[in-house]
Amino acid sequence: MSFYTFARGLVKIYYKFMFRMDIQGEEHIPTEGGVVLCCNHMSNLDPTTMAAFVKRPVRYIAKKELFEKRWSAKLLSSLGAFPVDRQTTDMKALKTAIKLLKNGEALGIFAEGTRVKEGEAKAAKAGVALFALKGEAPIVPICISSKYKFRSIVHIRYGEPIYLDEYKGQKVTTEMMEEITEKVMEKVREMRVEV
C-alpha cells in the first residue's frame, strides 16, 4: 500500500466522522488516461476533499511557498504534489504537468489559483486550458460546496468530461485558453449547491 492510499483512507475515516457526504457524478471521472480535474476553491480543505473522494491518485500543483519547509516539502511530494511559482510563467511546472497528463495521470487544479469566498468573483487562470490542450486530456469540472462545520454536508459534484477535440491542431492563443477556461468554470458554477 502506498503512502498516498494510506493517507486517503485516513482522511475518508476522518470525513465520515466530521461531515456528511453528498457525492454525485463519480462516473464522469475516467478510470484511466490523462485527465484534468478542475475544481472551485473556497476552503483549505478542498484539495484534501478532492483527493480523498476521487478513486484514482490525483497529482496537484501547489504554490512553491508550501515547499519551503523541509517537512512540508517531503509530505507534499509523497502525496504527489509539485511546486509552481505563481509570480512567473513557471516552465518547469508546466512541463511536469503536461508530462503527467501524457503519462495517463490525473492532475488536480484549482483554476482560480487561490481561495475564493462565497459571493466573490475571481478570474480563473487559463492554466487549466493550457495543460489540457498540451497534455491532450479532457477536463472534468468539479464543484465542492460546504461550510465544513461539524456534521454539515459536504456536497461534491463531478460534471461530464469536456473534450477539446475541436481545438486540436490549432495554434494555442490567449483567447482560446480563456474561452475554454470560462466554459469549464461555467459548468463548475452551475453545479454549486447553496449551503
TrEMBL record:
Descriptive protein name: 1-acyl-sn-glycerol-3-phosphate acyltransferase
Identify the SMART domains for this entry. PlsC
Biological processes annotated in GO: phosphatidic acid biosynthetic process
Single GO term (MF): 1-acylglycerol-3-phosphate O-acyltransferase activity
This protein's source sits in the domain of life called Bacteria
What InterPro entries does this protein map onto?
A: AGP_acyltrans (IPR004552), Plipid/glycerol_acylTrfase (IPR002123)
Database matches in CDD domains: LPLAT_AGPAT-like
User: Which UniProt keywords are listed?
Assistant: Acyltransferase, Lipid biosynthesis, Lipid metabolism, Phospholipid biosynthesis, Phospholipid metabolism, Transferase
Record's GO cellular component terms:
membrane
What sort of enzyme, by top EC class, is this? transferase
Which positions are tagged coiled coil? none
